[in-house]
Amino acid sequence: MTAVANLTAMEVEALTDVDGSLNLTDGHARLALSPDQAAIVAALPTMFAEASRRRFPDIEREAHTAFLQAIGQHSAPIGTGRILSCYSSTLATDIVARALPNGSTIAVLHPTFDNIADLFVTRGLSLVPLSEEDHLDQVWPGPPVSGIVLTHPNNPTGLVTPKEHLRALAEHTVRHGQRLIIDASFRGQVRDAQYDTYAVLDEAGADWILIEDTGKLWPTHELKVGLLAYSARTELPIDRAFSESLLSASPVVLLLVTALARNWTEGGYEYSRALVERNRTAVREAIEAVGLRLADPASQISVARIALPDGGPDSSVLYQEMLSHGVHVLPCAPFHWADPQGGLRYIRLSLARPFEAVDTAARTLARSYVELTRATTAPVH
Amino acid sequence: MTAVANLTAMEVEALTDVDGSLNLTDGHARLALSPDQAAIVAALPTMFAEASRRRFPDIEREAHTAFLQAIGQHSAPIGTGRILSCYSSTLATDIVARALPNGSTIAVLHPTFDNIADLFVTRGLSLVPLSEEDHLDQVWPGPPVSGIVLTHPNNPTGLVTPKEHLRALAEHTVRHGQRLIIDASFRGQVRDAQYDTYAVLDEAGADWILIEDTGKLWPTHELKVGLLAYSARTELPIDRAFSESLLSASPVVLLLVTALARNWTEGGYEYSRALVERNRTAVREAIEAVGLRLADPASQISVARIALPDGGPDSSVLYQEMLSHGVHVLPCAPFHWADPQGGLRYIRLSLARPFEAVDTAARTLARSYVELTRATTAPVH
After folding, report:
1. Mutate: best of A185, A221, A225, partner B, most B CBs <10 A
2. From the list B9, B48, B124, which residue is nearest A44 (CB)?
3. Which of B12, B57, B245 comes nearest A16 by C-beta?
């Protein structure tokens, strides 16, 4: 085993932990299926047969249509060849990173999931952080920054870039000849982020790349796709990078996505949202009882950050303490990829889990926090 | 759309061709399921439920065991943490390429699937070709080459590296402090390649990396995994590169692989092999009727190269002519990644297709070849 320190490594560790501990690390949906969703999964053999019978381009276009319509993206370039179905949004990001000019400088939202920054760095790009504050204040970098990378909504903070704000940013990138790259992996969970982004970007004349993801919406055991869409203005060798990475996503998975996306517009969204919000409430109540609070009370995505007061135990200590109680969560330092110290006062729990798991984890967190605080402040005899 | 020229791009083009033409490009299995395999696919909803109930590490270990035992790899490091389940063998190769020291020089078998060379080049490595002739003559490079990359069996030639030969190569790499990287994606199709490679490499004391693939064996519509296994001697940051690429493969796919691998040892192998060999015979008979021959008559993998005599139409011309008749195949120049001219006299057909498709394609090839030859040699009036 080699040394690892990124968030996914901690998620892998939690996933492969053999002692039966609770895993609230990754943002993948691990909620129970609704009855309708369960009926869809029961039709998998039929989908398999359908994938054998029908032409791949038809299956793919249908999935793009159903999914993008379900999340409000009515102006997405369906049927133009400019939407590529990847195994995952991570692979889509890596394809973009590979297609960008080597050595170029891009600005990346900060904090955000460390993997996004890592993939760009590993491909030889120079990164500068764009803080959420600067982004909200419309303080965007000009050249030599040639691209701006947003996460929308942001992970872990849940920050949604409002429509008029995105329009201003798009116009900024047009003025400065920059590319705008948006990872919208959590978009499906948040109605506020479901305005027609493609229309806004095209109206501004932007050179845009958008990454969509089905992996955060449904508990489908990694049967998912990441979509990589790009503007007609984009001249990067994205198709080449795609063809170096894969031949095609699975048509069976695309058929599953089609069915789940249709259900998403027929109550599936509200069903999942209610489960997540019930879990968020459980976390809030458990931590407020010991004087802690949610860092992002307005967040609507399926993870929650908890703010830890200055002077008390930090998230790396609390993370270890919770591990010793059999609960995996994520300390937030790695999300602050350009300034890990900045994340020490936050810890993240995934809410896309059965209620009992979230409730137990939140209570464990509260108890651990109290114990650690007492140990720190207890008089020494 | 950007300019593309690799083999996968041609495969994507064939897959997404909307006019209903025949696709004999990619080596992915698109045969009919056997009755036993169909029964396994029918159990997908049960597997989904099982994936929800059981722990991921147990499901993964079971899949590794079933698959690696089914293809004779009894000494693979199951349960050590040194076998990583990736979405595909391509992603496994890219993870290896990322983990290798930047700027190092590796030797790669030649010809072979261009994607292998491309992934290494894109990650900043320097490549030198190792011809099949030199490999067979045991003329292997020493330093500064720090790694040797084999495809076993090779694609498209079907060349199998015999056991004693691999042992000698492993000892060569130990003497020279080199790594040995083997892509065994087609191994499951060929008994001769199923000797226990892990035992041979470990006995020699080699620093090895092995890539296995379930994607070439079963017509499961891209529901597949690539396995990335590495030696205890390997000190590369492979786990880090893996965690940058994905969290985990799908446990549903791993359960499907387990069931299909068990069936592979109970008649599945013979069933698929009979279909492929019937198709190879159809190709041979169709082309021999017009004076052409199989380039690799001893090949046992699910693709066949056809040799084109000097002076006649080359494979790029024949490829275009077949396209005009609605048949997608692969010209072989890109397989000769270090010398594209060297591949002009070969054209490749996938045999993992329904008989009618292969038979039609072979007859189209024969007819196209005759027509092109006549056009070239016809007297001008």
Report:
1. A221
2. B48
3. B57
Check whether B41 has a pLDDT greater than 70.
Answer: yes
**Residues of chain A contacting residue B237, judged by C-beta atoms under 8 Å apart:** 2-4
| Pair (A205, A298) in one structural domain | no
Closest CA to A354 of A22, A119, A86, A69: A22
Of A8, A18, A51, the CB nearest to B221: A51
pLDDT at B2 over 50: no
Q: pLDDT tens digit string along A359-369?
A: 999 999 999 99
Examine the fold and report which residue of A262, A290, A305 is the final residue of a domain before the chain moves on.
A262
Instruction: Give residue B377's pLDDT.
Output: 67
C-alpha span between A299 and A193 (Å, rounded) = 12
Count of domains forming chain B: 2
From A32, which residue of chain B is nearest by alpha-carbon distance?
Answer: B52
- The secondary structure of B273-287, three-state, reads HHHHHHHHHHHHHHH
A26–B222 C-beta distance less than 8 A? no
Minimum distance, in Å, between the CA of residue B379 and any CA atom of chain A = 42
Cβ(B210)–Cβ(B197) under 8 Å? yes
A231, A262, A293: which is the final residue of a domain? A262
Per residue in A282-328, pLDDT (tens digit) is 999 999 999 999 999 999 999 999 999 999 999 999 999 999 999 99
